[in-house]
Design brief:
This protein is α+β, with helices and mostly antiparallel strands. It contains eight helices and ten strands. The relative contact order is 0.10.
């Protein structure tokens, strides 16, 4: 069985294929969503490039999942996952929220006495892991994804959330200035308007008056630039 695995975000779609339950992911690729009118076009491009005939489609999407209809948050793609699967003539498809997938990928951290390899983590605050408590999985991208992994006896339960849409709460005068700056343009300012790639651009513009894309701001910060570091 050949699976096409897609992680669809607001800016990029990450693709790979797999040929068995325990097999490694093959030919990982990152495509810009803006380069394709539809998700079908992106899948067709990837499958043609790698000469794939797909049996199963696995989709993790940046947005709430309540049925087959998908409306990607911060993206122009809208599609029915069932119709996409039918057009690809696959036998089955799986559709889940992207941070539900992230949470499920970390379930071993709760079920076993283990932690992430040191090259996969940076400890922000020390402490003693308690495997009986929920694990919060959160990550910025084009938006801000949130999910919780909750112990349930010998199993775990994933609690989906759209936590990026909670109201942003400034903690100091500098953050209050950023909130006021964004509120003039947006009205309501959610957490993902700050903690995200577009949010980084907004912070940099507020602090410097200049517009730069998020990757450039990150590169400036890594190079020790004061304005880049202040924004990050």
């Amino acid at each position: 069985m050949t699976r096409l695995i897609a992680d669809i975000g607001g800016t990029s779609v990450r693709l790979a294929h797999q040929h068995g339950d325990d097999d490694a992911l093959c030919d990982p690729a990152v495509l810009a969503c803006a380069d394709f009118a539809t998700v079908d076009d992106a899948f067709a491009d990837y499958c043609a490039k790698h000469k794939l005939e797909i049996d199963m489609l696995c989709l993790a999407v940046a947005g709430p999942v309540t049925g087959p209809q998908v409306d990607i948050t911060n993206n122009h793609w809208q599609f029915d996952a069932g119709k996409v699967a039918a057009a690809m003539n696959v036998r089955a498809y799986l559709l889940i929220n992207d941070f539900t997938a992230q949470a499920m990928a970390h379930r071993d951290l709760l079920q076993q006495d283990r932690s992430l390899p040191t090259n996969h983590r940076q400890i922000l605050r020390g402490g003693t892991p308690d495997h009986s408590t929920p694990l919060l999985v959160i990550g910025p991208g084009t938006g801000l994804g949130v999910a919780a992994l909750v112990p349930a006896g010998d199993a775990v339960q994933v609690i989906e959330g759209e936590g990026g849409h909670v109201s942003y709460a400034p903690r100091n005068p500098a953050e209050e200035i950023i909130l006021a700056h964004l509120a003039k343009k947006l009205g309501h300012v959610s957490a993902e308007r700050i903690v995200s790639g577009p949010g980084l651009e907004s912070i940099y513009h507020c602090q410097t008056g200049n517009h730069r894309p998020a990757p450039d701001i990150g590169a400036l910060a890594l190079a020790g630039d004061e304005a880049g570091l202040a924004a990050v």
